[in-house]
Amino acid sequence: MKFMFSRRIQNTPKSFIREILKVTENPDVISFAGGLPNPSLIDTEGIGKAASDIIKSDGRSALQYSTTEGYEPLRQYIADRYAKRYNLDVSADEILITNGSQQCLDLLGKVFINNGDSVLMEKPGYLGAIQSFSLYEPEFHSVSLQDDGPDTGELSSVLSEELPAFFYGIPNSQNPTGITYSDEKRKEVAEILNEAEVPFIEDDAYGELRFDGKAIKPVKYYMPEAGIMTGSFSKIFSPGMRLGWVCATPEVLDKVIIAKQASDLHSNYLSQRILYQYLEENNIDTHIEKIRAEYKKRADLMVKTIRSELPPEITCTQPEGGMFVWLRFPDNMSSMKIFEKASEKNVVILPGMPFYVDGKGDKTARLNFTNSDEEEIKYGIGVVADVIKELYY
Amino acid sequence: MKFMFSRRIQNTPKSFIREILKVTENPDVISFAGGLPNPSLIDTEGIGKAASDIIKSDGRSALQYSTTEGYEPLRQYIADRYAKRYNLDVSADEILITNGSQQCLDLLGKVFINNGDSVLMEKPGYLGAIQSFSLYEPEFHSVSLQDDGPDTGELSSVLSEELPAFFYGIPNSQNPTGITYSDEKRKEVAEILNEAEVPFIEDDAYGELRFDGKAIKPVKYYMPEAGIMTGSFSKIFSPGMRLGWVCATPEVLDKVIIAKQASDLHSNYLSQRILYQYLEENNIDTHIEKIRAEYKKRADLMVKTIRSELPPEITCTQPEGGMFVWLRFPDNMSSMKIFEKASEKNVVILPGMPFYVDGKGDKTARLNFTNSDEEEIKYGIGVVADVIKELYY
Q1: Judged by CB atoms within 8 Å, which residues 83-102 of A form the interface with B?
Q2: Residue B358 pLDDT more than 90?
Q3: Which residues does chain A have within 8 Å of residue B66's beta carbon, measured at their own beta carbons?
């Protein structure tokens, strides 16, 4: 039997990260490669109680089929939180619950991308998004990220030549770089995109994880109609329950609903009900506060250790939130080589290449700080420093 | 802002069923239109206990990110069950856990369909599959269903003109007709497809619901390499937890894994763990036996009532399992008209049209018997009979 696979799937290689994560299943390995929330900060007790309570009080409904859009009170909760945190005027009708925010990318790919269309990414950009969109066979273009957001000159220049289906970006604690767009950049990006009539897909997976707790107005605030936000409960509640959402105007959400229904009818309803029950029974802000404090401590330690242990030619970002630090190597170094050598010593970093749609990025690497404890951070960065010395000094 | 939506989404109308289901949210309505398992047959107590137990004993892991393929012991359980029930030689490596079996269709669409490719369906065919595959812009062809399965002459004749990406069918208690392929037809279909090198996507959502409990060997048994099966826990465990699976050889599953990862990383892991815990703590076969007995009673009552109340020109299938009875009307009647009139009297049937890729089917309708009690079945069919008399006699 000779199978005739689709072009899209033949052209999508197995994810490099996925292959790396297999290595890190070995408990002797210190992994800075993944993007896992710290399991000690998952409130298993609170979630267990919420699960028990909802199955007892409304099990037959919670375990039955449900609506494509998702549980209405949960959608209302999300809309209210947008109003409270971001001063965004959003109604429950503008929210659809997804299987984690990764599914938002698949649904939005379905809704916006014809094969051959341009899609605009940050450079470097989130590789999960590159992978999702790839299945709809776009041509990728990218705009360089500076320390305060996209290079807006480059953005304008790309838009003068291309009309992309959308621009996809992560203004808060970007994945992979950890940088956060300045308020000024957000306004500029919105103005440029509005002018060009290009929607902005604003991935806000890390907005709740800003260490100082202060919310910055999203890009959508400056382009309410053409702004589409995606959000996630993975980082503040439980990743394994795969709960995220799309927020868009009814015109766009109508199309997302069709895509969602064709994709899997609706998201896990029991999990939606457990989550809402949890939000009723607990103060999620107290819990988020704990996560922020813990992650800030680890981020600061990682940056400090990098600066003291690694040669000064290697620079790193100072994250204001999120889960990642970004390393930049000088021209004579290769992150793939450093990755290989460090892996032999059971410390895994993530080379930057898969985050670049143009195949570049070997002078960069992403380090996750949320899933390692302080000893592991110190020891692991030490190993990376040793490897670099061995290779280049 | 003028949004530029993709062709695929512009060409997919809102689901007719979805619109109907909105009407049926009114508790005064008797609905034969949906496909909901009976909520009284969901073991809320057992699931509640399993949820508590797993969150207590292994919550941090159950609530964390997990592998794309799904929880290994659950995949092994499914493989073992294939061996036990169907005498199929399948390993855990050939199983991937999905969000209900609807997601299998989306993933297989991604893996197999280039826009413009032929896709072969049963006529009438499952509308959820039509909707899923539509997003990959195929050309649909269909093969008539006879009382014992597809018209194999027609199948051969279509295959002499078209090389479809696959043939999709439901050999056990088909949706919408309720018919079951005979053993002979299964062999013939497998031979024809093997010869033409066309994969068979065998949707087995209802195999466990055969009223007599006797498993019939699947088509995949006769074409192990090119047979791809999809399965579901929605009908025997909980639909709201959205748990299904794809079973295919490693060559195909490798591609499905890539599609799954790009779509949503992995299925709800907590739900997978709750399900497996439930399977450890309970005898699912006893539970399935209860569902079968209850559904058989309702199916028999519905068929008996149809035969006694409706004019003899209207015929219906006699289901051996599953959830649906299929009505065939004579040429002078219209299922849309009957649907409209009956809806005014708060009884909803599902006109057959959306199950036909060629726009025909107005002489047919699908009736669900699992989600109405005996009184509702008798009363509802009585209303349909009254409406038909009003309209046509």
Answers
A1: 98-100, 102
A2: no
A3: 240
Asked if B52's CB is within 8 angstroms of A102's CB, the reply is no
A59 lies in some domain: no
> Is there a single domain that holds both residue B103 and residue B211?
yes
- Supply the range of the domain harboring residue B353: 7-43+289-392
Look at A59 and B47 and tell me if their CB atoms are within 8 Å.
Answer: yes
Complex-level ipTM: 0.96
User: pLDDT tens digits for B188-230?
Assistant: 999 999 999 999 999 999 999 999 999 999 999 999 999 999 9
The answer to whether residues A382 and A310 belong to one domain is: yes
Give the pLDDT score at A133: 96
Confirm whether A273 is domain-assigned.
no
For residue A23, pLDDT over 90 is answered with no
Give me the residues of B, 44-73, that contact A with CB < 8 A: 44-45, 47-48, 51-52, 55-56, 59-66, 68
Q: Report the residue of chain B nearest A264, measured CA to CA.
A: B103
Residue A6 covered by a domain: no
CB-based contact A110 B261, cutoff 8 Å: no
In terms of average pLDDT, the best of A11-20, A128-137, B24-33 is A128-137
Query: What is the total count of domains within chain B?
Result: 2
Looking at the complex, report in whole angstroms how far the Cα of residue A45 sits from the nearest Cα belonging to chain B. Answer: 8
Q: Does A259 lie in the same domain as A384? A: no
Instruction: Judge whether residue A21 has pLDDT over 90.
Output: no
Alpha-carbon distances of B40 from B236, B290, B370, rounded to whole Å: 12, 11, 10
Cβ within 8 Å, pair A9-B255: yes
Q: Which H/E stretch holds residue A255?
A: helix A250-264
